[in-house]
Specification:
Blueprint lengths: L3 H32 L13 H11 L1 H4 L9 H17 L5 H9 L3 H15 L3 H9 L9 H8 L3 H7 L8 H4 L3 E3 L13 H4 L3 E3 L3 H7 L4 H4 L16 H16 L4 E5 L6 H11 L4 E2 L10 H18 L2 E5 L9 H13 L4 E5 L6 H4 L4 E5 L5 H11 L7 H10 L4 H14 L3 H9 L7 E4 L12 H23 L12 E6 L5 H12 L3 E4 L1 H4 L6 H16 L2 E4 L15 H19 L3 E6 L7 H4 L4 E5 L4 H11 L12 H4 L6 H18 L6 H14 L8 H6 L9 H8 L4
Parallel strand pairs: 3-6, 3-7, 4-5, 5-6, 9-12, 9-13, 10-11, 11-12
Antiparallel strand pairs: 1-2, 8-10
Helix pairs in contact: 1-2, 1-4, 1-6, 2-7, 14-15, 16-17, 19-20, 21-22, 23-24, 26-27, 29-31, 31-32, 32-34
Length: about 725
């Protein structure tokens, strides 16, 4: 049974037979020309015609591989190649050269050119042959001139094949052949006399792939400027109408510039392709532009991309959001300078408009602005993306209400669900899994409603808040309540004493909705430098909006506090921070939860904008009983004489109960006790009271725990018993 490596070598040997015949023919033509110079003085430093013949004999595949088809006539080689392909297919083997030709869409001439450049790796004698054919022994490496001399001998063939060896031909554009002096990305001038004589070398990974099939053709044959069309294309109807108008502009102005603003990063590719496709064009990108460090590099990279687009008859796509960064203004000016002078159609996309005056006054510019898709537009995009999967309509309604996905995110979620065999809801959560933030703690909620112990009224409010988030898109957008009732997103305020479950309730809501929880780290957010606090908080809001997460501000009065009279210079800036946050909170589409121990500390302008305000009270006897049951795991060795009903009489919050249970377990383990007894709980509860700056009333511990034995090993228990109110 032939191996893939053996079949690959046999295939190359077959194809090299044609290359060698071309070399013999080129050598014959060279010898004929040499004979015309027989009477002229020749340099002794040359390869004679006889030596060239010997070199050809040394490199003839028929010598190393004696077979009837090696180096035989073209018809015999074609027949042998068909037989080899048939045999390889029968054995389930693919031929590497065929794979590469398919991946890069190479024609026979391009395949032969590639093999001619590979020839020195197969036999070192080719280097001298190349110098002989070019009449220059210093040229021992393949060049475009050599390829044309061997494979395109007539003027007509040379003329037709010249572009295939240039910077925009597939061989160099895909990085299969690299010419000395090429930039890091494809591009450069059109072939000239000097360009034809520059040495060419094949990509380093190609010999192993062509000879043994080691490698992936999809990675070896890759055009960095190619922009694949997204499938399926995901555009809502309003955006599709805007792209149609821009496409009409490009049709009326063949060198026009079409700009579409307001799109998120993950939706710009779909829109750019829609503009190009409706204008009858394809798209190319500008590879390497983001790596430029000087204006000259930006001009060169932009110029190469525009030249490639012009040579290939495509439009250039340029996402410009990077140009708005403070340290990239110089790059924007350099790119605008080149774009103004080109006659290539250009598609610009970005979240924020970019309007250099030179472009606006060029007479080629047209723009459209779009808004974020509403609920029904998102629902339509979900239907398009899941066409054929036949999901439940109610599930798509829920996904469209809960998540604001870009087309790229939506497409990824659907494909992940299909390939991973998971629910769409799970796939969306994986796609939206928030990356760790610089200013926020990102977590996947692990608590569910059963972990939240609240009075019935508060528990109902928390459930209503989660349900309202699902219904809000319809109420906000279809029924029109969003514009005048707090903005596009829901905001909730949780007030109450510490330890009453405010932060836990936020985590439970996030878990119910199936989104991540982003808790803002106020210690890193608030800055003494003017403007830094606003910048940091904007980053937190943007992080939550991009991830579709619940944004939690714990102890929110630290940054959402009341504005006051200006008596010092810093007061003015503090008031500006509050004003900015008021605007940012109102326009955010995210679900934002603020918690505070003292509602009166918040600015009234904030409190008016909350659709939900939940006050968390201290738990009653029934809630405390449930909390004590949850505080001790089933495996905990609790003294059977202890009763949870008695513990529930103690006025502790949920956080205090959990802390007391954990402290009692630690005391029992430290003392070597087999059970968590009364004395351990007494000391732990007394410590918790002292931590809260409170004292238990006289007899309260005894009533809750029963008589507490005083042991020598727990002297602090006696101290705890003495710390009571008379």
């Amino acid at each position: 049974m032939p191996t893939r490596s053996g079949a690959a070598a046999a295939h190359l040997t077959l194809r090299y037979g044609a290359i060698h015949r071309a070399l013999r023919a080129a050598a014959a033509r060279r010898a004929k020309r040499s004979s015309l110079l027989a009477g002229a003085e020749l340099s002794p430093y040359c390869v004679t015609d006889e030596q060239a013949g010997l070199l050809l004999d040394f490199t003839d595949p028929a010598v190393g591989h004696p077979a009837p088809w090696s180096g035989g006539p073209p018809a015999a080689q074609t027949h042998a190649e068909r037989e080899l392909r048939f045999q390889a297919t029968a054995e389930g083997i693919s031929l590497p050269l065929d794979e590469l030709a398919s991946a890069a869409d190479l024609d026979p001439f391009e395949c032969d050119a590639l093999l001619l450049c590979l020839a020195p790796a197969l036999a070192a004698e080719h280097a001298l042959l190349f110098g002989y054919l070019l009449d220059d022994l210093d040229q021992r490496r393949p060049t475009a001139e050599l390829i044309l001399t061997v494979l395109a001998p007539s003027p007509a063939e040379r003329y037709d094949r010249l572009p295939a060896l240039g910077p925009y031909g597939r061989l160099r554009r895909f990085g299969l052949l690299i010419q000395d002096g090429d930039p890091d990305t494809y591009g450069g001038p059109e072939p000239s006399g000097a360009d034809l004589l520059r040495p060419l070398h094949i990509r380093a990974e190609l010999p192993a792939f062509l000879l043994h099939g080691l490698g992936d053709p999809a990675l070896l044959a890759y055009d960095p400027g190619q922009v694949p069309a997204p499938r399926p294309a995901l555009l809502d109807e309003p955006t599709r109408g805007r792209t149609a108008r821009l496409a009409a502009h490009l049709q009326a102005h063949p060198g026009g510039i079409a700009a579409l603003w307001g799109l998120p990063d993950g939706g710009q590719l779909d829109a750019a392709h829609a503009v190009a496709e409706q204008a009858g064009l394809t798209l190319r990108g500008a590879p390497g532009l983001e790596l430029c460090r000087t204006p000259a590099e930006v001009r060169a990279a932009t110029g190469r991309s525009l030249a490639a687009a012009a040579a290939l008859g495509t439009a250039l796509w340029l996402p410009i959001d990077r140009f708005h960064e403070p340290d990239a203004r110089w790059a924007a000016a350099a790119a605008a300078d080149v774009l103004t002078r080109t006659g290539v159609p250009v598609v610009l996309t970005g979240q924020t408009p970019w309007r250099p005056l030179d472009l606006l006054s060029s007479g080629r510019y047209a723009e459209e602005s779009t808004d974020e898709p509403g609920y029904w537009e998102r629902r339509t995009l979900w239907s398009t993306a899941t066409a054929g999967a036949d999901p439940e309509p109610r599930a798509l309604d829920d996904l469209a209400a809960r998540f604001r996905l870009s087309p790229a995110q939506l497409r990824s979620a659907v494909r992940l669900a299909e390939s991973g065999g998971m629910l769409l809801d799970t796939a969306v959560r994986r796609v939206l899994a928030a990356t760790p933030g610089r200013l926020a703690d990102v977590r996947t909620p692990s608590r569910d409603p059963s972990d939240l112990v609240l009075p019935a009224e508060q528990a109902q409010q928390i459930g209503e808040l989660a349900a309202a988030f699902r219904a809000w898109p319809k109420v906000s957008q279809e029924w029109g309540f969003g514009g005048q009732h707090g903005g596009p997103g829901l905001k909730a305020l949780f007030t109450g004493e510490p330890g009453t479950g405010k932060s836990l309730a936020a985590e439970v809501i996030a878990a119910t909705l199936g989104v991540d929880l982003i808790r803002v780290d106020l210690a890193q957010t608030v800055s003494k430098w003017v403007g830094e606090t606003e910048k940091n908080l904007d980053e937190a809001f943007s992080h939550a909006e991009a991830a579709g997460a619940l944004l939690l501000f714990d102890e929110a009065d630290a940054v959402f506090g009341k504005r006051g009279a200006v008596s010092r210079g810093t007061d003015r800036y503090a008031n500006l921070e509050v004003g900015y946050l008021l605007q940012r909170l109102e326009r955010s589409p995210a679900l934002v939860v603020l918690t505070t121990n003292l509602q009166g500390n918040l600015d009234e302008a904030f409190t008016r904008r909350f659709q939900f305000v939940v006050h968390f009270t201290r738990p009653g006897d029934r809630e405390r009983y449930r909390l004590w049951r949850m505080a001790f795991p089933d495996s905990a060795p609790l003294d059977p004489q202890l009763t949870l009903e008695g513990l529930a009489r103690l006025d502790l919050t949920g956080a205090g109960i959990m802390a007391a249970a954990r402290g009692a377990a630690l005391l029992a383990a430290e003392s070597g006790s087999a059970v968590i007894g009364r004395e351990h709980l007494a000391e732990a509860i007394a410590r918790q009271f002292r931590q809260e700056s409170r004292l238990p009333r006289s007899g309260e511990l005894e009533l809750a725990l029963g008589p507490v034995p005083v042991r020598d090993s727990a002297a602090s228990v006696a101290a705890a018993a003495s710390c009571v109110l008379p």
